[in-house]
Specification:
Length: 92
């Protein structure tokens, strides 16, 4: 994926990941009423119907989404969003 020069949103399809790849994922830690999210890079172990299993420092995490290391992390993607102005799509 790349960033749109106009609105700074992300454009394009995410790269495919496969088992054994290093992937970006998000660990959610719930404390009281707040959720703290941190982006990590782990190794993809399993692709499941409802998400992914990623091993990071010997612990297996369940992740709802993972990203290719060269793609924006799920956090960046959520914060920045996708291209909304259509500039890049129009050129493609
Ligand atoms: Zn745009």
């Amino acid at each position: 994926m790349k960033r749109c020069d106009v609105c700074k949103g992300y454009v394009g399809k995410p790269r495919e990941v496969k088992v054994g790849d290093n992937v970006g994922f998000v660990i959610e830690r719930r404390k009281n009423n707040s959720v703290k999210m941190s982006a990590r890079t782990g190794k993809l172990m399993l692709i499941k119907a409802d998400g992914f299993s990623v091993i990071y420092r010997g612990t297996v995490y369940h992740a709802g989404s993972v990203s290719h290391p060269e793609d924006p992390s799920p956090i960046s993607l959520a914060l920045t969003g996708k291209c909304s102005c259509g500039t890049e799509n129009a050129q493609a």
